[in-house]
Design goal:
392 residues, mainly alpha, 62% helix
Length: 392
């Protein structure tokens, strides 16, 4: 095929990217294989899968946190994408808001489990409503991730628990079409020159008036632009160390600060979560300050330690992710849904995350997820909910 019109500067590194991905995934698979051998007599099926589903009231209350997230994002300047709202305020609220978002999604996924156990039309209607609400709330923001990040896992859960093959095919087609449409639409919406409005009604009218094919971008070029970023690993391999020296342990002496709240971190030699993004801009992966084009985890491993670092790093990633699978087998379905949902914030973005993001996810974020999983599981069992007529 000929080079696409969008980001041909990245596509020229396709060969190196493919070699890097294959090399990385081999060692990633070896990490998983080692864990499977270690736990060969254990099965990833809990004997507690027959437990009573969480009450619908609990699920709805947890999910309603998403409205608080939207309110706080608007109040703290973290709601709009930079192409609509200008420079987004970077604050200590960002991580908290992300955690609150994924807590709310626990309500959606627990409600889905409830639906598959009850097959109640009310439960099904609540699930459908929950899936649509984040899309509606975040469409005006222009932030694709906020609007659709809950959908892939929701469709995975549906395909896992649904036994009807025809419904699986139908929902798979619907899921791909919905996510594809939203990706294309929000590309055009952000590229249409609209700006943030103080009026909610006005903002939604701008959403309704956005055209799928904008003046500067078509659906095909929009998708290729995002796909181009997957070739970023090739740019790193071709530039390091021939043009840029290996980074090694540079900046890692500040990583201990991930356990401190932002306000308590020292002013000098402060932890810099944006350093990988800055490197991405330096070698031309991200075309500008406004771009979210990531360095990728594999790219970050290579630019620090080369092929050996890529091999050992991806082996550790596969090993740790598989260990996570086996760590909570004995827990209830509710606990496992919550812990894996909260960890999805880390795992779902591993492809685009940096090594610092991965380290943060499997240390601080894992500890927070375990604590919240225990707390929410306990709350789901409070007998107050048992009195509600919607439980039965």
């Amino acid at each position: 095929m000929t080079f696409p019109a969008v980001r041909p500067d990245l596509w020229v590194h396709t060969d190196s990217a493919l070699i890097g991905y294959i090399f990385a995934m081999i060692f990633f698979s070896l990490g998983i294989l080692l864990v499977n051998i270690m736990f060969k007599n254990k099965y990833l099926v809990s004997d507690k899968d027959t437990e009573t589903p969480t009450p619908i009231v609990f699920n709805v209350l947890i999910f309603s946190i998403i409205s608080l997230v939207v309110t706080l994002k608007i109040a703290t300047g973290n709601y709009y994408h930079v192409t609509i709202g200008g420079v987004t305020k970077v604050s200590n609220w960002s991580n908290l808001l992300a955690v609150l978002s994924w807590i709310s999604y626990c309500g959606l996924y627990l409600q889905m489990i409830r639906y598959f156990k009850t097959r109640s039309s009310i439960d099904g209607l609540v699930v459908l409503t929950m899936m649509l609400i984040p899309i509606i709330l975040f469409l005006p923001s222009g932030n694709r991730e906020s609007a659709i990040e809950h959908l892939p896992i929701a469709f995975i859960i549906y395909l896992t628990f649904e036994s009807n093959i025809k419904l699986k095919i139908l929902m798979s087609s619907f899921g791909i079409a919905l996510i594809g449409f939203l990706l294309v639409f929000m590309y055009a919406y952000r590229d249409s020159g609209l700006s943030a409005s103080d009026s909610v009604i006005d903002q939604y009218s701008q959403v309704a008036g956005a055209e799928i094919v904008s003046e500067n971008q078509t659906p095909v070029t929009g998708l290729i632009q995002r796909l181009s970023e997957y070739v970023a690993l090739g740019r790193v391999i071709d530039h390091v160390p021939s043009r840029t020296q290996f980074s090694g342990l540079e900046g890692m002496d500040t990583w201990w600060q991930i356990f401190l709240p932002g306000v308590l971190r020292p002013d000098s030699n402060k932890l810099n979560f944006n350093e990988p993004a800055e490197f991405s801009r330096d070698i031309g992966i991200a075309p500008g300050w406004w771009s979210s084009a990531p360095l990728m985890l594999k790219g970050d491993l290579f630019r620090r330690f080369g092929w050996l670092g890529l091999a050992l790093g991806m082996f550790c990633v596969g090993f740790l992710m598989r260990i996570l699978d086996y760590s909570f087998i004995s827990k209830t379905t509710t606990f496992r849904i919550i812990i894996y949902t909260l960890m999805a914030k880390t795992i779902w973005r591993l492809y685009a995350n940096s090594l610092l993001g991965f380290a943060t996810g499997f240390t601080r974020d894992l500890l927070v997820a375990i604590f919240l999983a225990y707390a929410l599981t306990y709350l789901s069992n409070i007998k107050l909910y048992k009195k509600n007529f919607l439980v039965n």
